[in-house]
Amino acid sequence: MLAVVVGGGIAGPATAMALQAVGVDAVILEARAAGRRGGSWFTISPNGLAALAAIDALDVVRGLGVPTRTNVMMGATGRELGVLPLGAPLDDGTPALSFRRPDLAAALLDEARRRGIEVHDAARAESATTTPDGATVAVADGRRFEADLVIGADGIHSVVRAAIDPDAPAGRYVGLTNFGGITRDTPIASTLPPDSWYFVFGRRAFFGALPTPAGDVVWFANVPREPISPAERAATPVDRWQEILTDLATGDHGPFAELIGGGELELVADNTYDMPSVPVWHRGRLGLVGDAIHAPAPSSGQGASMALEDAVEMASSIAAADSVTGGFAAFEATRRARVEKVVAVGARASSTKTPGGLRRVVNDAVMRLVFRYAVTERSQAWMFDHRVRLDPVGGAGT
Ligand SMILES: Cc1cc2nc3c(=O)[nH]c(=O)nc-3n(C[C@H](O)[C@H](O)[C@H](O)COP(=O)(O)OP(=O)(O)OC[C@H]3O[C@@H](n4cnc5c(N)ncnc54)[C@H](O)[C@@H]3O)c2cc1C
Q: What residue stretches are annotated with the FAD-binding domain (predicted)?
């Protein structure tokens, strides 16, 4: 059996490797050309790392990750609002790890290639079709790829999702724009709590910083505002964005004005979308994984972890079913409730960072109560402590 996986981000290579492990050959089509890509950092929590371990890919990428045990939440005036552990470590002691997003994607693609999976760069899928006997993907340069099934791992603006259901909803703007960067070799690194994201609910924006073992600090800013238009993006040079962000951080607790002023922006003016509920997850021999079906807002800290869980569950479902459509249906039955709950968590977390939300909850005392009683290690255990298994390993598939 052969699968074409559209998308070589996080879900794509993981799904291709998981399928290969259960006896299904896979080919990956990635729209972008090979080469170094810009992008910010994200955290894979233990549930996502367990999915990487299930496809024997954790050891391959572990060295790229920065251990991240807790989120430390601070108010604008410097009052600690709460400390949230990022789930129980794996049995071998591995805690959550933060990665530079494009570096993790590139490492997963390299590992897929090393395992003999064909990866086609600069192969942008334009359409996907399904018949009772097979499925086809047409690529922008005229090539066509035929297979027994097609899995769309092509992110929030998925072409495969549109082929499955032309009426599928589009992403929903969550009211925040995203900027991310790095400040290299800075003494600020040793002033931040180790192995932790240090978050500040600032008066005008939400900031996060993570010190790396190399002595750098990775940081981001979520700025509540209307989406940034292509015209504004084109007209605003990177150093102007840096000035704007530095101004937004000035006067609030934390080292953000200095970090941003002295650092390099790697993620510039990214409008943040989520995908609350996609009614149709599969049609015929076309299915979906990752952000294409359930993009949670970045505030959930779970998008990539959910994508990795999907990869393992999709392969298990396909291998155990007696038809491709049966496999897709089993995957949806296993995943829908969990991923939609995570999207809801992300939407709530984002709303505390938007202007109305900031005004509503800026009061430090309220936030302290939230982190003491509502958003706690215990209340989040369902998310972080979930463990997927590749099952049946080496199964036949149909
Ligand atoms: C700023 C930011 C911070 C985040 N922080 C976190 C975090 O801390 N923790 C976390 O778990 N998640 C986080 N996320 C979410 C996470 O990045 C996504 O959920 C995750 O990358 C989803 O993986 P994916 O493979 O489904 O989609 P993507 O990573 O978007 O990959 C999709 C791939 O498909 C390719 N593609 C698109 N269209 C086509 C096409 N037509 N043909 C071929 N290829 C195509 C794209 O080029 C891309 O490589 C964050 C997201 C953002 C934006």
A: 4-343
pLDDT digits (tens, 9 = 90+) for 162-193: 999 999 998 889 899 999 999 999 999 999 99
Q: Return the higher-pLDDT residue of 187 and 79.
A: 187
- Domain ranges (residues) in the chain: 2-67+99-171+275-354
Query: Does ligand 1 come within 6 angstroms of the Cβ of 196?
Result: no
pLDDT digits (tens, 9 = 90+) for 112-169: 999 999 999 999 999 999 999 999 999 999 999 999 999 999 999 999 999 999 999 9
As assigned by CATH, the class of the 2-67+99-171+275-354 domain is alpha beta
Ligand 1 pocket, residue 155 CB under 6 Å:
yes
Collapsing DSSP to helix, strand or coil, 343 comes out as: helix
Sign of the torsion angle spanned by Cα atoms 350, 42, 214, 88: positive
CB of residue 307 inside a 6 A radius of ligand 1: yes
**Distance from residue 8's CA to the centre of ligand 1 (Å):** 9
CB–CB of 327/318 below 8 Å?
A: yes
Predicted confidence (pLDDT) per residue in 216-272, tens digit: 999 999 999 999 999 999 999 999 999 999 999 999 999 999 999 999 999 999 998
Compute CA distances 112 → 19, 25, 41, 152, whole Å.
11, 11, 22, 17
Q: Cα of 166 to ligand 1 centre, how many Å?
A: 21
Instruction: Give residue 306 CA to ligand 1 midpoint distance, Å.
Output: 11
The vertex-335 CA angle with 329 and 337, nearest 5°, equals 115
CA-CA distance, 138 to 151, in Å (whole number)? 14
Out of 6, 10, 179, give the residue to mutate to test ligand 1, the one with the largest number of ligand atoms within 8 Å of its CB: 10
294 ligand 1 Cβ < 6 A: no
